[in-house]
Design a protein that fits this description.
By secondary structure, the chain is α+β, with helices and mostly antiparallel strands. The chain contains eight helices and ten strands. The model has no long low-confidence stretch (mean pLDDT 91). It starts with a helix and ends with a helix. It folds into two domains: 2-87, no CATH class; 113-277. The strands form two sheets. It has an eight-stranded antiparallel sheet. A two-stranded antiparallel sheet has the order 1-2.
C-alpha cells in the first residue's frame, strides 16, 4: 500500500476538526479547497462522504471517491488505487514529499523532561489499526519529584506525587475520535511507586510499578463512561549525585479500554532525538 501511494499519488489529509467547518481553526484556503472538491464531486455525481477518500487530478478535477469502510479494507483500497493509476496511465516516480515525522515534540522550557507516548489497541480493525501519539512535558520542578528522598538506599521505595503521576498517565488510552486536542480524561486512580534497585558509583536505577484508571469518552462530548485501566511497569535511570534523570521507560501490555486490550509505551527523549525531530 505504501509503495502504491508513494509511486503514483501525493497523499494529503485534511482533518474535519481542522478544516471541515467555516469556524474551524484551519486556514481559509484549505477550507475553500475542501469545499470546492466536495461540490465538484457532488455536481458530477461522484461518491462523496464526510470521512472519505477523494482522488483529484493535477488540474483539480475530481477523479473518483471511495467510502471509508472500503478504504479500511487493504485489498479494496489497493485495487481501487491501482486501477486509477492504470486507467490514467500515471508514470510512477519517487515520493513527492520525503518521509518525515508527523508527530513532533512541543516547544519546552530548558531543563524540561519530554516524553513520547504511543498507544495502540491490540485487537480489531478501523480505529484499532493505528497507534495514537502524544507528548508529555514535565517541568524541572515536576520531574525532580520523581527522584528519591535524600539518603535513599537500595530497596527504598517512594510514591510519585499525585499531580505528577496524573500528568504522566492521563493520556494512556488507545486512539479514539478527537477534535480539539484538549484533555478530557478524568483520572480516578494514578498510583505509581518507585523502588531503588541498583546504585553504583552514583548512578542508580529505580523500578516503576503502578496502576491507572481513567475515564475518557470515545467521542468528544460523549456521555458514556469509557474507562481505560492499565497495569504499568518500567524503570528510571538517574544520577544520584547530580540529581538528573537520564532515561525513563514505562510500558503496559496489561491494559483495557472498554474491555478491549491495548498496549502503550511512554519513553523519555534525549535532547539529540528531540532536535532531530524538529
Amino acid at each position: 500500500m505504501i509503495e502504491i501511494l508513494n509511486r503514483y499519488y501525493v497523499p494529503v489529509t485534511s482533518p474535519n476538526e481542522w478544516a471541515g467547518e467555516d469556524n474551524s481553526a484551519g486556514p481559509k484556503a484549505e477550507k475553500e479547497e475542501r469545499k470546492r472538491i466536495y461540490l465538484y464531486f457532488y455536481g458530477h455525481k461522484l461518491p462523496i462522504g464526510d470521512v472519505h477518500v477523494y482522488i483529484v487530478a493535477p488540474n483539480g478535477d475530481g477523479v473518483a471517491g471511495l467510502d471509508i469502510g472500503s478504504a479500511t479494507n487493504t485489498d479494496k483500497l489497493a485495487a481501487f488505487l491501482t486501477k486509477i493509476a492504470s486507467d490514467l496511465h500515471v508514470t510512477p516516480g519517487p515520493p513527492a514529499v520525503a518521509p518525515h515525522p508527523v508527530s513532533v515534540p512541543p516547544a519546552a522550557p530548558a531543563g524540561s523532561l519530554t516524553l513520547h507516548l504511543v498507544s495502540r489497541s491490540s485487537e480489531g480493525g478501523s480505529w484499532h489499526e493505528f497507534p495514537s501519539e502524544n507528548w508529555i512535558v514535565l517541568s524541572k520542578p515536576e520531574w525532580q519529584k520523581l527522584l528519591p528522598p535524600a539518603g535513599a538506599a537500595r530497596g527504598a521505595s517512594w510514591p510519585v506525587p499525585k499531580p505528577v503521576a496524573v500528568k504522566l498517565v492521563e493520556w494512556i488510552y488507545p486512539q479514539n475520535e478527537e477534535k480539539t486536542g484538549v484533555n478530557r480524561s478524568r483520572v480516578d486512580i494514578a498510583d505509581l511507586k518507585m523502588t531503588l534497585v541498583t546504585v553504583e558509583n552514583g548512578r542508580a536505577r529505580a523500578k516503576i510499578e503502578g496502576q491507572v484508571k481513567l475515564m475518557h469518552s470515545f467521542y468528544p462530548g460523549g456521555k458514556s463512561e469509557d474507562f481505560a485501566i492499565s497495569i504499568l511497569s518500567g524503570y528510571m535511570d538517574f544520577d544520584m549525585t547530580e540529581g538528573v534523570i537520564q532515561r525513563l521507560r514505562i510500558v503496559t501490555d496489561k491494559a483495557l479500554y472498554n474491555q478491549n486490550p491495548f498496549r502503550a509505551s511512554l519513553i523519555s527523549m534525549s535532547r539529540e532525538t528531540l532536535d532531530a525531530l524538529k
